[in-house]
């Protein structure tokens, strides 16, 4: 829906855009444009004042807003599945999904050619661990080589830290970027 | 990729970690965004308690739905959109509840935004007048105008937040401006 033009045919958007410069010849002569400029200047100036007050106390949140959000988020734990890591005569070791995700993320951190976007864990039908790692790769890399490295590092680290053999690791490349 | 938080971690990293369940990463996002979202909500709702509820609800909804966000770079527009929708919902409930829109006991706190006595009287009064006029805008026009003029977002960003096209955003801002200009002209 377009804005109505002024009585003289001018587009109000053009008048607004031209506020910073002085009025042009038409605007000097035309009473409609003169009035429009005058009222728009009031809007512009008062708006600037409002913008300058963005940091005013009346617009600042209550001091505990951020902390109450965080406390409530903590209570709403989204995923905390546990996985059986080792089961032998001595007993069973389980680990949380979070521990597995963190282990994988930390292990992959030093690899400069990639950024880890997501790590998803699931359990295969035989009870083994399956990983899906979504990464973005920096421009110019050989994708299969990088994917293999990611897979190898993730598998090695999980075996080392959690004594967990991973049954399956899917590496998905979500994007290729320059950084 | 923007830098966020004291650790200087970029937003993409914080969002993707939060998507995997990292509460600390989510906390950094909350610290960064809650003041801006609160300010935005205040300009839509004119009421501190409502704005607080809006931001809290929006942030927790974001936490629950974060895993579904496909593009981590879209986080800002996404959370502003959730906040805006929450504000609209609060307004709808408030409108149904109010028996008389002009009942002084229901009067939004805009009337408490009295100009600073130290500031130029003229500036203060013009500001107060503009605030009243902004409050009189329709929900759609006000949201677009606030995001453009007070949060200085691009039409593209606003379009993503309100869920429409750039040209619709442009039209709404132009109509808002026309209404505000008319109001300011009639004021003095």
Task: Describe the protein's architecture and organization.
The complex is a heterodimer of chains A (179) and B (188). By secondary structure, chain A is an alpha+beta fold. Chain A is 42% helix and 25% strand. Chain A has helices at 12-17, 25-29, 31-52, 65-75, 97-108, 143-162; strands at residues 82-88, 91-96, 114-123, 129-138, 166-177. Chain A has a three-stranded mixed sheet with strand order 3-4-5, covered by helices on one side. Chain A has a two-stranded antiparallel ribbon with strand order 1-2. With 188 residues, chain B is mainly alpha-helical. Chain B is built from eight helices and no strands. Chain B has helices at residues 11-19, 23-45, 48-65, 75-97, 121-136, 139-150, 155-162, 166-187. The N and C termini of chain B lie far apart (46 Å). The relative contact order of chain B is 0.09. Chain B has two domains: 1-100, RNA polymerase sigma factor, region 2, helix turn helix motif (Rna Polymerase Sigma Factor, Chain: A), CATH 1.10.1740.10; 117-188, Orthogonal Bundle (Arc Repressor Mutant, subunit A). Chain A: Belongs to the asp23 family. Chain B: One of its GO terms (biological process) is DNA-templated transcription initiation. Chain B: Keywords: DNA-binding, Sigma factor, Transcription, Transcription regulation.
């Amino acid at each position: 829906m377009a804005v109505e033009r002024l009585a003289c045919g001018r587009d109000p958007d053009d008048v607004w855009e031209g506020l910073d410069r002085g009025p042009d010849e038409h605007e000097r002569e035309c009473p409609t444009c003169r009035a429009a400029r005058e009222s728009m200047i009031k809007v512009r100036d008062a708006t600037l004042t409002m913008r300058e007050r963005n940091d005013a106390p009346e617009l600042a949140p209550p001091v505990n807003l951020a902390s109450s959000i965080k406390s409530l988020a903590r209570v709403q734990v989204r995923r905390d599945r546990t996985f059986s890591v080792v089961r032998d005569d001595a007993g069973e070791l389980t680990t949380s999904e979070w521990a597995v995700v963190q282990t994988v993320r930390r292990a992959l951190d030093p690899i400069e050619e990639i950024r880890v976007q997501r790590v998803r864990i699931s359990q295969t039908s035989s009870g083994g661990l399956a990983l899906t790692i979504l990464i973005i790769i920096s421009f110019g890399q050989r994708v299969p080589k990088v994917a293999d490295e990611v897979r190898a590092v993730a598998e090695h680290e999980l075996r080392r830290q959690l004594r967990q053999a991973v049954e399956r690791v899917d590496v998905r490349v979500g994007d290729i970027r320059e950084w | 990729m923007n830098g966020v938080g004291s650790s200087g971690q970029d937003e993409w990293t914080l969002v993707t970690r939060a998507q995997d369940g990292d509460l600390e990463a989510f906390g950094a996002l909350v610290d960064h965004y809650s003041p801006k979202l609160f300010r935005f909500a205040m300009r839509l709702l004119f009421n501190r308690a409502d704005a607080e509820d809006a931001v809290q609800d929006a942030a927790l909804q974001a936490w629950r739905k974060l895993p579904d966000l496909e593009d981590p770079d879209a986080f800002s527009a996404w959370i502003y959109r959730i906040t805006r929708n929450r504000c609209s919902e609060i307004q709808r409930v408030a409108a149904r509840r109010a028996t008389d829109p002009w009942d002084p006991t229901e009067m939004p706190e805009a009337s408490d935004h009295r100009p600073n006595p130290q500031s130029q009287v003229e500036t203060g009064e013009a500001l107060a007048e503009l605030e009243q006029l902004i409050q009189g805008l329709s929900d759609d026009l006000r949201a677009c105008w606030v995001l453009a003029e007070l949060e200085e977002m691009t039409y593209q960003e606003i379009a993503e937040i309100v869920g429409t096209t750039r040209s619709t955003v442009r039209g709404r801002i132009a109509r808002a401006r026309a209404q505000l200009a008319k109001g300011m002209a009639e004021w003095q």
